[in-house]
Structure formats: C-alpha cells, structure tokens
Design brief:
By secondary structure, this protein is of the alpha/beta class. It is 24% helix and 20% strand. The protein has helices at residues 9-16, 24-43, 47-63, 70-77, 80-87, 198-205; strands at residues 124-133, 143-148, 170-174, 180-186, 191-192, 211-212, 215-221, 228-234, 253-254, 257-258, 274-277, 280-282. The longest helix has 20 residues, at 24-43. The chain is globular, with a radius of gyration of 23 Å. The two termini are 44 Å apart. The protein binds benzoic acid and fe (iii) ion.
C-alpha cells in the first residue's frame, strides 16, 4: 500500500472494500470508484475545485428537507434522473419521465368523465385515451393516478398557506372494460423548478433557465404489469425543446386541439374547450 501512486490508488480503494463476490453492490461500488478516479485524473482536479464540489454538496444537504430535496433537483438538472428513467423504460412500454416532488399518495378517486379543475381559471381540457399492453390488448381496471399544476403554473400543494387543498388538481381514475379513460381538468402552464438554492446557482453559472414545459404527471398501474411513471407534454408549447429537467420525449408529446361542435366526445361532468388524446402502454411485470 505504501507504494501507492495516482494510478494504483484506484485498485487499492477497490480492494479495501470486502464486498460479496459477484454482488450488485460490489459492481456498483467498483465502477463508481473507477469513474470517479478517472474523472479526477482526467480533469486534473485542483484542491480548490475539489473543495468547491464538496461545499456544493454540503449546501445541497443544508437546504434539503422532505419537501425540498435539493439532491433530487440536482439529479434532475444534470439529466441523471432522466437517464435512469430512460434506462428503465421497457421496450414497447410508454417511456418513463420525472416523478417530480409533488406526488401524493391517496389522491381522491374520480369516476370517468369527472373534473379535476373544480371551476379554476383556465381552458377546460379533456384528456382521453386507452391503457393497453404491449400487444395492443386493452387493459380494463388499470389505475391512472394524475397530478398537475394549474393555469398559473402552480401546484395547489405549494399554496396551502393561502388556503388551497393539497389534494386539488390530482385524482385517480380506473379504466373501463375497453381500457379507456377520460376526464377534464385545466390546461397547466409552465413553471420553474426551485432556483433559490445551490442548484439555482449551478443553473445560473451555466446560463440555463429553470423552466419546465407544461405537463401532466401520471403513474399508471395494473395488476400483472410494470407500473409506469411518466408525463404528458403538449406540442408547440414553451420549453418543449429545452425543459430544465430533460423530461420531454417525442413519444410523450400530445396535440392540443380545440373542441368543435361536430366532435363526438365521451360524457363529462364539465364541457371541455380543448382536448388531447394519449394512450398508455404497459409491459408485463418481471
Ligand atoms: C415537477 O415536474 O413537478 C418537477 C420536476 C423536477 C423538479 C421540480 C418539479
Ligand atoms: Fe410537474
């Protein structure tokens, strides 16, 4: 060990961990050490830069709470979250995208055709489609959990101090016998990810903005299928080509269309003035 140098140290650190031969932990740890050391050698990291990185991580920790998780935000703006979503998308299934920080368990259940908007400002949007398996068979009884921002780009959960209900603009729907779902809501607007902390400093240092393209969030589950967490975006809307957290995928962009008198629409509690269609595809479990 005393003959260690900047090249042999990588193997020495790997050997110092006595992890189970062939285990996933051993694989993850050793690969991480190799990449971290390679990066450090490649960029010739100075002491000031090394301490700058550690202080940045310390600042992320200082600001983090269960509601404001700066490390997840860092992962998001570095495209790390999106990359994990991409790697874990099953062939043939709907592509995954950001969960984001605003998901809540136990959102209220709605009947098909129900309205999440509850008279809020904004265009009334009909969202409709089908949940299918990768062979194209409809999945009846699939559960669609959705949540979103309002027409000002704010999640009600962020506005509890001004009297908003955290369960507003979220709901759970169950597909019918043909795997179909439909509901109305308000058309969401873009919003910024939090940029008043260290991740905001990083964005500014890189001349980047903090805006997310407007989107609807979904988790879709069905028995015997792998659940998907994803987002739905709208064609020709702001930030669709430069979403701050790299959540947009071509396959997740839907077209917003005005509702015409001649359109045949499913029954809804509130009459929509815009509509979009999106089908979810689930891959089998396992
Ligand atoms: C969101 O989509 O809600 C979100 C995603 C990443 C960071 C902040 C918010
Ligand atoms: Fe969001």
């Amino acid at each position: 060990m005393r003959d260690i140098n900047q090249f042999t140290i990588t193997e020495a650190v790997k050997q110092s961990f006595k992890t189970e031969e062939g285990s996933r932990l051993k694989f993850l740890l050793e690969s991480f050490i190799e990449h971290l050391h390679d990066y450090t050698r490649e960029v010739n990291l100075t002491h000031e830069e090394w301490m700058g990185i550690l202080m940045f991580l310390y600042d992320c920790g200082k600001i983090s709470t269960p509601e404001r998780h700066e490390f997840i935000l860092l992962s998001d703006v570095l495209g790390f979250s999106a990359l994990v979503d991409m790697i874990n998308t099953r062939g043939g299934a709907t592509e995954g995208s950001n969960l984001g920080p605003f998901y809540l368990d136990d959102a209220p259940r709605f009947a098909l055709g129900g309205d999440l908007g509850k008279g809020r400002d904004g265009a009334v949007l009909l969202v409709q489609g089908q949940v299918r398996d990768s062979l194209g068979n409809p999945i009846a009884g699939a559960v669609i959990d959705t949540w979103q921002a309002d027409s000002a780009g704010t999640y009600p959960i962020q506005e509890q101090a001004s009297g908003q209900d955290k369960f507003d603009l979220r709901g759970v729907f169950t597909t019918d016998a043909d795997g179909k779902y439909w509901y109305t809501t308000v058309l969401p607007k873009p919003y910024t990810v939090p940029y008043d902390g260290p991740v905001g400093r990083l964005l500014r240092a890189g001349n980047r903005h903090a805006w997310r393209a407007s989107h609807l969030h979904y988790i879709v589950r069905a028995q015997g299928y792998r659940a998907i967490t994803t987002e739905l975006f709208f064609e020709n809307t702001d930030y669709i080509d430069n979403d701050a957290v790299f959540g947009v995928r071509r396959s997740l962009i839907t077209k917003l269309e005005p509702v015409k008198k001649t359109d045949t629409l499913p029954p809804t509690d509130v009459a929509p003035n815009a509509r979009c269609t999106f089908d979810f595809v689930l891959a089998p479990e396992g």
